[in-house]
Amino acid sequence: MKILVLNGPNINMLGIREPGIYGKNTFADLLQLLQDTAKELNIEVEQFQSNHEGDLVDKIQWSFGKIDGIVINPAAYTHTSVAILDALKAVSIPAVEVHISDVNAREPFRQISYAGLACCKTIKGHGLEGYREAIIYLNQLLNHKIS
Asked: What domains, with CATH codes, occur in the chain?
């Protein structure tokens, strides 16, 4: 099984960017968590981060026929990108949306998620652990342990 973890703008700045909102864990900590989770579940996890919307769309399209599930944190593109929504819908790969912070407790514009419309689950406010939860969920879903 192969899971693609997509991260949008500024996720590479974890630990530096607004630690009161996003925590003190770094992007390297996130990458280690993904690697540890993959090893624990005996699956392959590929991570891709970009600050550019088109690169994220290209990676989603690239995943068609190569990836079993997608974990996506579109970051700021959550609230603006119909292109990411359309790409997720086009490939029809089970996807879980992750947000490090609880976007429901933040500014009103953060309540809107276009990407989430194409996802089977959204995990928010669980910090980096949300990525682990998303990978476990997809692993169970794809192994028909949950529906």
From this structure: 2-142 (3.40.50.9100)
